[in-house]
Amino acid sequence: MTPKLNSQQRAVIIGLIVIGILTVGFFGLRTLHAFRAFRGHRPPPPPSAADAGRIETDVELIRDWMTIPFISRMYHVPQKKLFDALEIPRDGNQEKSLAQLNEEYFPQAGGILMEKVKATVLALLPNQLQQMEVNPGTPDVPNVP
């Protein structure tokens, strides 16, 4: 037989149940928010075999989800020069996207960081293309229209 609960015990039990439901709801919403943010950052598609040795030359393909190391590999431009041109430290910023870096270092000017990256890559591309022509045994670089 179950003992009878007085009103004070019922209030404590109901209070604990409400606190439990609020805790589950709070952390459930945080998990949902994190899941939505994670889904927005998909990894880039794997490179095809035909593109393996080519240097990308179209800076308009740079997007705000890209990181500096990714852009460095894609355009064969040294990371150090990109970080120097942006005047931000390399340590702690390699994993951040251009959007995150812009928000952190230039919050008053939206998109300025991406324009700086595009201009820097565009300025460094002729040097990279020239090095590719000088080094024998490197794959051909397509003509830039």
String of helices and strands: HHHHH
Query: What is the structural class?
Result: mainly alpha
The share of residues in helices is 55-70%
Low-confidence stretches: none
List the helices and strands and how they pair.
Blueprint lengths: L6 H33 L28 H8 L3 H8 L11 H8 L6 H23 L11
In short:
It is built from 5 helices and no strands. With 145 residues, it is mainly alpha-helical. The chain folds into 2 domains: 8-37; 59-134.
Report what the structure shows.
This protein has 145 residues and is mainly α. It folds into two domains: 8-37; 59-134. 55% of the residues lie in helices and 0% in strands. The protein has five helices and no strands. The chain is elongated, with a radius of gyration of 26 Å.
For this entry, give a set of tags:
145 residues, mainly alpha, 5 helices, 55% helix, 0% strand
